[in-house]
Amino acid sequence: MTLILTLASRNLFHDRVRLIATVVGIVFSIVLVSVQLGVFMSFERMVTLMIDHAQADLWIVPAEAKSFEDSSLLNGRERLQALSIEGVAEAVPVVVGFASWRKPHGGALTSILVVGAPATSVGLRPWNVVEGSADDLAQPDAVAVDRSYFAQLGIARIGAKAEINNQKARIAAVTAGIRSFTTTPHVFTSLGRARAYLGIAADKANYVLVRLAPNADAAAVRGRLAAALPDAEVLRPEEFRHRSRLFWLFDTGAGAALLGSAILAVIVGTIIVAQTLYSSTKDHLKEFATLRAIGSSRDYILKVILSQALISAVIGFSMAALIDGVLVKATADAALPIVMTPALTLGLFVLTVAMCAIAAVAAIRVVMRIDPVLVFAQ
Amino acid sequence: MKEIMIEATEIVKVLGDGAGRVEALKGVNLALAGGELTLLMGPSGSGKTTLLSVLGCMLTPTSGTVRIRGRSTSGLGPEELAELRRDNVGFVFQSYHLFPTLTAAENVRLALDVRGDRSPLAQIKAEKALATVGLYHKAKSFPRELSGGEQQRVAIARAIVGDASLILADEPTAALDSENGHAVMELLADIAKNPNRALFIVTHDPRIMPFANRILRIEDGRLVSDRRGERGGGVRTLKYAS
Q1: Do B118 and A3 touch (CB under 8 A)?
Q2: What is the bridge-based pairing of β-strands A167-175 and A161-164?
Q3: Which of A99, A146, A272, A295 has a CA-to-CA distance to A312 between 20 and 30 Å?
Q4: What does each C-alpha distance from B111 to A210, B158, B198 come to in angstroms?
Q5: φ and ψ at A27, to 5 degrees?
Q6: B13 touches chain A (CB under 8 A)
Q7: Do B173 and B94 form a contact (C-beta atoms < 8 A)?
């Protein structure tokens, strides 16, 4: 270890109380930031869950549809018009709408989001089916729910019966891991049942999922569809994802609140670290003056201060990462689990180092102005 | 002919301004030769520490010139002065100013580290300097584990490790008892025998006069006497109690 690192680390560990205060500041700040960003990323993923799993090359959506959960309806002619366009192989209607779930044994009604698509064709079928089969949704009254919602829906197993908007429903398939970012469970069913539950006319749908013919030019087909459907919009999946994210993350203010909290956490953490580094530097002022007196350059002293900041960052980040690991595990089955990716972890480390480096500015300003004559003061 | 290690010409230093303006040095002329231990004595407020700071390139004179081994300090900025210090000047302070979190050897090595000397040889040089001051066996001790005299000897090792041509000491025995003060002065006098090194000690302590080759007296910012000490052929006047 170089003498600069030795001096920096020993100065830090010499005053354990101050080091603890510094590390606690960094840990709180980084854990808070990682939770906010982890939830943000989780939210970002979950708001596009249905779009991600739909087998569509293009989406025909009602004009100005904000997100998948938007329950506006198309005018009803889109599917047939789409099928008449060159390059379109399939056009699959999808119905989405909120409904009330009545538990088998009574109790309060539960709000659900019904997702209806043809049960036997590609489009938007339940995935991660752990009991029953997606094809079973073709049976009368059949629905699929995620097992994580069993308690909320008042059911215990496949085959259980309930009511959706006062109409029969029977659990024919169970999925794992299809969670909504709201408290409203998704309930998959066939297109016909969904229309019946939601009271939607047989020719109506919220979306039409378009599958292109092999070798079809997506941009050209999209242009033809857009020209043929002036009252609707034709979006690529990534566009619909982007629009959904914008709506849920920013139009609702939820994402802004998460990012705002994260920024606030960085500011608070920076202030705490700055305060402790500054007071530590003030306490070691005579030592820095001695360094200056024996001829050290300002750069040398700068390296000592920055090394202290870096060591604090590494210790603080390591502890924060451990806590984050526990939180990620603890929330894995929650409605909005905290997501931690390698990129986010790396980003948080860079943020921690940057935060500590910025926090060192006040201390650096003090030592840069230090007068070596201070060594003669008694 | 002894080599002149530092030469100060017509040094004036004004401190403060307005009502607090003080002319701390009023035209000081001084040259220190290698192989000599020079004492600077005088009452409090006479300008001793100011002169030490000017000679050590820590204060820039208001007027006059300082030359260290022929190189003028005039017009040099803080970084150039720091470079001049690390290449030419070693300091010994009254309260040692060792780094409490570094071992004796690390404290000594620091003087080399700030010069960019981080070779494995630096550790050997530091241990050799500690051996010179009789503390090789305390190389791994922290300052808190050393007596005041030992700490001052570590500080001396730090001052000499880089082969500085000028050692400036500010009241090096003031915080020590008679025995340790005597030992430290013996050591500094020994170090001063090197013809490539000049020692300049600011002190109030008359008991260290027997170790001097030369004794200067400053009063009210002016050098008022310059005489040879006992080792320089003068008269021995006071002794450390033995």
Answers
A1: yes
A2: antiparallel
A3: A295
A4: 75, 6, 18
A5: -60, -50
A6: no
A7: no
Token pair recorded at residue B89: 């000047």
CA within 13 Å, CB half, A370: 31
pLDDT 10s digits, A157-208:
999 999 999 999 999 999 998 888 777 899 999 999 999 999 999 889 999 9
Q: Are A218 and A57 in contact (CB under 8 A)?
A: yes
How would you label B30-53 residue by residue, b for 16+ Cβ within 10 Å and e otherwise? bebbbbbbbbbbbeeebbbbbbbb
| Closest chain A residue to the Cα of B90, Cα to Cα | A294
**All domains of chain B in start order, with CATH:** 37-58+78-232 (3.40.50.300)
Question: Which of A286, A295, A373 lies at the smallest CB-CB distance from B86?
Answer: A295
The Cα of B96 is separated from the nearest Cα of chain A by a number of Å equal to: 10
Q: Which of A127, A54, A130 has the alpha carbon at shortest distance from A92?
A: A54
* Neighboring chain A residues of B93 at a CB cutoff of 8 Å: 290, 375-376
Does the structure show a pLDDT above 70 at A363? yes
Report whether A2 contacts A275 (CB < 8 A).
Answer: no
A65-72 contacts at long range (C-beta below 8 A, 24 or more positions apart):
A65/A233, A65/A243, A66/A243, A66/A244, A66/A247, A66/A251, A67/A243, A67/A244, A67/A247, A67/A248, A68/A96, A68/A207, A68/A240, A68/A244, A69/A96, A69/A113, A70/A206, A71/A96, A71/A97, A71/A98, A71/A206, A72/A206
Q: How far is CA A259 from CA A159, A244, A256, A346, in A?
A: 43, 17, 5, 18
**A205-242 pLDDT, tens per residue?**
999 999 999 999 999 999 999 999 999 999 999 999 99
- What per-residue confidence (pLDDT) applies to B239? 42
Residue B183 is which amino acid? A
Strands (DSSP E) found in B17-170: 22-33, 37-41, 63-68, 71-72, 89-92, 166-170
SS (H, E, C) B97-136: CCCCCCCHHHHHHHHHHCCCCCCHHHHHHHHHHHHHCCCH
Bridge partners for B166 per DSSP: B89, B198
Query: A25 to chain B nearest CA, in Å?
Result: 24
pTM of the model: 0.77
Q: Are A71 and A113 in contact (CB under 8 A)?
A: no
pLDDT greater than 80 at residue B236: no
Is the ipTM of this structure higher than 0.85? yes
